[in-house]
Amino acid sequence: MLTTTQVQPVNDTKGPIARESLALNAPQKALIAGGVIVGFLLLVYLLATQHVSQSMLLGIGLLLGYTLFHARFGFTSAFRRMASVGNGQAMRSHMLMLAVAVSLFAPILAYGTTFFGGPVAGYVSPVGVSLLVGAFMFGIGMQLGGGCASGTLYAIGGGRTVMFVTLIFFIVGATIGAYHLPFWTEEMPAFAPYSLATSTGFGYGGAWLVSIILFGLIAWITLIIEKKRKAPKMAPVPSAKGWKRILRGSWPLFAAAIALALLNALTLMTRGAPWGITSAFALWGSKIAGAFGVDVASWGYWQGANAASLEASIFADSTTVLNFGVILGAFIASAAGGLFKFTQVTAGNFAASVIGGLLMGYGARLAFGCNIGAYFGGIASFSLHGYIWGILALAGTFLALYLRPLFGLSVPKSNDSVC
């Protein structure tokens, strides 16, 4: 993806970008105006055709995309820097984000309903072969594809051309994964979903305390690894000063971590489920396949509760609306910083994006989500599967470090400046 924080794009094959090239330019006013107009028209359409919650989710998505871009906040390079040079700064920002999220999710899940009176449920999924294989595949895929699920969306919003390739094959992989999912969930062994809150005697208060302890322990371990490996620090990116920084970035990681947790909780209160991304990819791909005559409705994935989504407009799908919002929010943020531009596609990063997109799409379906739905949303929902997803994705990252050079993709070295 673009970056986890103030760092180089991970598919840049020429090494770290010079810091001065990341300096903010004059705002791209025509692009900003275009983005605002598109957002307004989409908002009007949603208000006219869908429940008001969809309009609210579009606004939340815009804020998510704006936050992701301005903080360069992601997951792919956080895992890669941890695995390659031992830099855990971004991983600690994840722990802060998760700490704030569980603090907000606990009372909502324990007592709350949505703003509209509907039920609220977190992401708590089974732990089995499907999760293990899917998360490992996703870990490899995000390192080859140049970004995770959220990173793919906000990189597209910033104009990173190769990420359009990643998205296309992300959708293809998710669609194939949806077709194969009954085999993985019904034929492969798995344990029942396990919640730290409801599957134990802890309750949400006890689960919150256990979670906070775990986050603190993980943050402490990253500090030990950094000291032992003498990890390089991340170099800052030039930024607007004062209040202009809110609109033109770059934002500190800790601020983005808090904002993302707040927005995820707001998503939970709006639609009754946490933030997710990749289920929409399976929906888009299945609708396209159906348009070409594939009997998608007969797939096991589209039976039961999912059947209605396949028949309805994509704008009735809350995850789709959030995704469009993220892309549009990142687009406006990049234009506000004068940074929107299409980038070069090479044979190496094209091939890596094809393979990475396929692995992420397929892996996300098997693992009941991606870095957002399974890792962020799962852990925030006190689900054991979220922690296991993170471990297996990190394992996939270690393997991908040996694969990236085959496509001309860089891997940070211990004596490099992480910038």
- Secondary structure tally: strands: 2
| Biggest sheet overview | 2 strands, antiparallel
Please report the distance between the alpha carbons of the first and last residues. Answer: 14 Å
Shape: globular
The helix/strand order is HHHHEHHHEHHHHHHHHH
- Derived from helix and strand composition plus strand pairing, the structural class reads mainly alpha
What value does the Rg take, in angstroms? 20 Å
Strand-residue fraction? under 5%
Q: Give me the oligomer status.
A: single chain
Q: What is the count of distinct domains?
A: 1
- For the residues shown, what is the average pLDDT? 91
Fraction of residues in H or I helices: 55-70%
* Largest sheet, spatial ordering of strands: 1-2
Weakly predicted, low-confidence segments? 1-21, 415-419
Helix count equals 16
Protein name: YeeE/YedE family protein
Transmembrane segments: 30-48, 54-75, 96-117, 162-181, 201-225, 246-266, 321-340, 347-368, 374-403
Organism: Planococcus halotolerans
Pfam family, one: Sulf_transp
In terms of topology, how is this protein built?
Blueprint: H1 29-49, H2 52-71, H3 76-84, H4 89-111, E1 127-128, H5 129-145, H6 149-157, H7 162-187, E2 190-191, H8 203-229, H9 244-248, H10 253-271, H11 278-291, H12 307-311, H13 318-336, H14 347-366, H15 371-380, H16 384-403
Antiparallel strand pairs: 1-2
Helix pairs in contact: 1-2, 1-13, 2-6, 2-10, 2-13, 3-16, 4-8, 4-10, 5-14, 5-16, 6-7, 6-13, 7-11, 7-14, 15-16
Pfam families: Sulf_transp (PF04143)
Membrane topology: Multi-pass membrane protein
Subcellular location: Cell inner membrane
